[in-house]
Write a structure and sequence with these properties.
Helix content: 55-70%
Oligomer: single chain
Structural class: mainly alpha
Order of helices and strands: HHHH
Shape: elongated
Distance between the termini: 103 Å
Radius of gyration: 27 Å
Strand content: under 5%
């Protein structure tokens, strides 16, 4: 009896297993990345016309995230990055030449 009680005292209970984060299927993550690539392209395209101060950085962030998550629409993500950069360059040009952050057509 003493050997059982000694063995019970020397062994500690097994640690509880740690809860694991829910596993998302790769296809679901990839579909989100594909959506971000398309959104990046559309926001970059719209940013060349209106609100380039807001839509340009949004296009850059979404394009970078979609590439980091392994999108299958890599071309659209890269175009979104290029258009987002063009939006910010256009903003800089408008600000330096005209002193405003909006389009001004006419005299």
């Amino acid at each position: 009896m003493t050997t059982l009680s000694q063995a019970a005292r020397t062994t500690s209970p097994a640690p509880a297993p740690e809860p694991q984060a829910p596993h998302r299927p790769a296809s679901r993550l990839r579909s989100h990345a594909d959506g971000m690539a398309v959104a990046s392209f559309i926001l970059g395209l719209l940013g060349t016309l209106v609100l380039n101060i807001v839509l340009g950085p949004c296009a850059l962030v979404l394009g970078g995230l979609s590439l980091a998550r392994g999108t299958t629409r890599r071309g659209r993500a890269l175009l979104g990055l290029a258009l987002g950069t063009a939006d910010l360059v256009l903003l800089a040009l408008l600000t330096t030449t005209d002193g405003t952050i909006s389009w001004h057509i006419g005299g």
